[in-house]
Amino acid sequence: MPSLSSPSLTLPKPNNKHLLPNKTKPSCLVQSILSLCSQGRLSQAVSSLDLLFRKGIRLPTKALALVVQHCGDARSLRDGKWVHFYLHLTGFKRPPLLLANHLIGMYFKCGDEVNARKVFDKMLVRNLYSWNNMLSGYAKMRNLKEARSLFEKMTERDIVSWNTMVIGYAQSGDCDEAVRFYRELRRSAFALNEFSFAGVLTLCVKLKELGVVRQAHGQVLVAGFLSNVVLSSSLVDAYAKCGEMGDGRRLFDEMGVRDVLAWTTLVSGYAKWGDMRSAGELFDMMPEKNPVSWTSMISGYARNGLGHEALALFVKMMMFQVRPDQFTFSSCLCACASLASLKHGKQIHASLVRSHLRPNTIVLSSLIDMYSKCGNLGAARQVFKLLGDKQDTVLWNTMMSALAQHGHGIETLQMFEDMVGSGVKPVTTTFVVILNACSHSGLVLEGRRLFKSMTDDYGIVPNEEHYACLIDLFGRAGCFDELMNQLENMPCKAGDQVWNALLGVCRIHGNTELGRKVAKHLLELEPQSSAPYVLLSSIYAEEGRWELVEKVRRLMDERHVRKERAVSWLEIGSRLHAFTVSDRLHPLKEEIYSVLKQLADQMEEDASLTNLEN
Question: In the beta sheet, which residues pair with residue 578?
Fold first, then answer.
């Protein structure tokens, strides 16, 4: 095929008088080119245009339009540009309306809005389709400024023009403009269709405002489009995003036809809000499951602390030969991390390698996090070291967080310097990780310097989480004057994160007076968190004020607050054993407590001998 950069070197000067008129063109050649396009051999088909040109043959307009459409569908900008050049050579310097509209569509599909606009501007005649074609292209490329400018120049508009603007603004996240256009559309003389509501329902899903969802539901119902399975599924999704699973389930049950998207939407909603029982029941009832429905369940189990169930479902998914995607692997790795099961984590890692998927940033960071939380920091380091592209901040943050959790504060700071040196710009989360590392390693001077550098060198304004880290840093190091100074001079009002950090400091240093004040304040801010109740109860118990201890416990019962019991894991051979405080459920409890008693007796005996020697 001739090079686009120098077509004059391979093609002779066109002689339009030798071009055969459409009616005499050999139909077999035309059919041959169209067959190549339909078979996916696009480059070969486009190369054949050179042969036709040399023979003085020009494809019919409709055939050329089909070739241009195939170029767009294949996202082949090179082939599309060559066809456009061929049009110039064969006398179509200003292509007719049909071809111009197809060229605009092709250029937008290939992401070239500049050439699309050039074609549009050179058109001598434009119809409404031409304008809508441009609107749609700009909207899909998120260039709403140009779309808006073009929309305002239109002397004629139809329902497609309005729908394009509503959907474009909704998908780009500009909810205010989407609402404004939708309201104007409703006031216009145009009858709304399914696509009109598709735009407003996209808006509902993004806004997560129940009032707006219910209004849209009523409008879809009145317009008679509730039987449309796509619109009904979008409404179910919107209710789920708002946490109104009851309304979503009622609408789902009323649907006459349900496709796999409708089922998956409801399953995902239940999983997101932690109702894994309902999600599981619905999942089992699904007449057809897709990879998204499987992944939604696995992700739901992993997020809700049901790691064993997540991994068991992954095994079942593989047995049914359902191909996992990146999000499936990420969820399974999170499940392994929550269980601290290195064995299962390695198996998921091996499965990822065998799948030949190129892991994205989320999967790679989940892999680093899993190895770190399973105690194998060396493997986490190795995964990070082998990464080809280290230009993503998320990966650096994950690795630095892993080092910080293992107490390697100095190494974390060195990695931060390496990240900045490699040209990766730190973000808000990066400084949360770094300040936590300084806090847990007692690096007060470094923490203070980095907190100042955050604003001075990187233009990041500290938020409440950063101040909470700073208070934790000063508190752990016993720098109470600096701590109180930061607390008094914070530019933002102290929220639950800051007060929880202060609570932790009081617990570490046994500051009962301040701890009492902080706990009482947190009871008002976070009435469902168990931490302030436990600390307040402990303070009152140490002071012997048992009536107040009982009062705090009654308050916990009244508010249905439960202290989460700590769990310890121990992997022996191929089995993972979990223990809680005063655990009486383990099958080997008698042997375990017998050994513990022997150890306690031995410790008492050793302590007695040490005292005698002293």
Answer: 569
Nearest residue to 541 via CA among 524, 558, 553, 528: 553
* Higher-scoring residue by pLDDT: 203, 72: 72
**Mean pLDDT over residues 28-34, rounded?**
77
Query: For the stretch 44-79, what's the b/e string if a residue is b when 16 or more beta carbons lie within 10 angstroms of its beta carbon?
Result: ebbbbbbebbeeebbbebebbbbbbbbbbebebbeb
SS3 405: helix
pLDDT of 402 > 80? The answer is yes
Distance CA 120, CA 292 (A): 40
- DSSP bridge partners of 580: 567
**Angle, alpha carbons 258-264-265 (nearest 5°):** 90
The helix (run of H) or strand (run of E) holding residue 570 is strand 567-572
pTM listed for this prediction: 0.74
Is 60 exceeded by the pLDDT of residue 334? Answer: yes
Compute the distance between CA of residue 170 and CA of residue 176 in angstroms, rounded to an integer: 9
Taking the C-alpha atoms of residue 147 and residue 138, their distance in angstroms, rounded to an integer, is: 5
Q: How high is the pLDDT of residue 26? A: 53
578: three-class secondary structure by DSSP: strand
Crossing angle for the helix pair 530-542 and 496-509, to the nearest 10 degrees: 30
Q: Does pLDDT of 19 surpass 50?
A: no
Residue 53 · residue 83 · CB < 8 Å: no
